[in-house]
Amino acid sequence: MQRLDLIPKAIHYEVLRQVRLLEIRDELARRGVTPRDLEQEIVDVSDIMKGTGSKVVRRALSRGGVVLAVKLPGFRGLVGRELMPGRRFGTELADYARFWAGVGGLFHSDELPKYGISMEEVKAIYERLGADPERDAFVLVADERGKAEKALQVVLDRAKTALKGVPEETRAANPDGTTRYLRPRPGGARMYPETDIPPLTVDEDLYRMAEEIKPEPVEAKMRRLVEEYGLSKELAEQVISDIRLDLIERLIQKHSKTLPAKTIASIFTVTLRGLKGEGVDVEGIPDESLEELVDMIAEGAVAREAVDEIIKYIAEHPGERPRRAAEKLGLTRIPPEEAEKIIQEIIEENIEAVKEKGMRAMSLIMGKAMAKLRGKIEGRIVADIVRRKIQEATNQ
Questions:
Q1: For residues 298 and 41, what is the distance between their CA atoms, to the nearest angstrom?
Q2: What separation in angstroms does the CA of 211 have from each of 11, 16, 22, 83, 390?
Q3: CATH number for domain 4-184, candidates 3.30.1360.30, 2.60.120.560, 3.40.50.1820, 3.20.20.10
Q4: pTM score, two decimals?
């Protein structure tokens, strides 16, 4: 009999996987992707990859293999979407490709450049496929031609299934409680019991555990976001409709004592959506990068005002981590004492205007101060220091 202590985690992960697949389905519908869009030609890109730094690709080519690619219209950011811890939609595609075509794996554009594949190669493949880097994704397989062609056709078929939601399939359990694709689900003609899955007794304890992990009704979730976390009704509605709802809730709970829930929610519902409207590819940013960014704000490593610039940078540099991006951009948070020194210098450089206008010089000094300090310290702290320094300079 299966160990009951593993069942809650396994059930939770499976519920999470299916919810994420439904979210991907809904997002594809919003993007207007249809089955006809996925009738794509498989393209040979071996010439583009002949000088690649990828050992996997070089090994396949040295053995007489090929590198084939296929476009997934409208899938940008969704192939890399996490379904369960450590497993993404791209992992599902790879499982199918391994089972049906016998390939070792695949690469997809949401994880590139990486694994020795350069940005120049990624751009060249997008161009060869006639794909839009802002909207489309692609999948790459390096293997024998026959196996690679079959693998990419399987990928297209599985992508079409994503338009419907959760596929009917048999899955195998992993040691960590997650699952992987095992084989197609048998048809109605199969009348005998499953022989390779141990029996599981459904008792009151199992029913109780299932009740505990049952998804929360939308109305209850809305009420909790408003009453427990203090979100406005409008903001709570935006959080519930966000494709990263699970991540937002987890971060709100994680930082409940250090960061207002409104701040976390607004990063996803206001900042990310606003940047998306400006053409920034926020959908391709992995959940772990956004979590790291929120962690940095909570621990005081960066100011809230730095979020926009950091997100833009990691969107434009796939694979870059928020902490490293903050360092490169010079947006790591500075202590108030250092900010005070910079503001004092600005006051001294503009002392005549400060003495003449008094507190009416506030906007002038704030503008100059924020030009140097934006993203390095909270604006309210800058305003407090500026106000105090002007008062000291004018004896007000």
A1: 47
A2: 11, 15, 21, 22, 61
A3: 3.30.1360.30
A4: 0.50
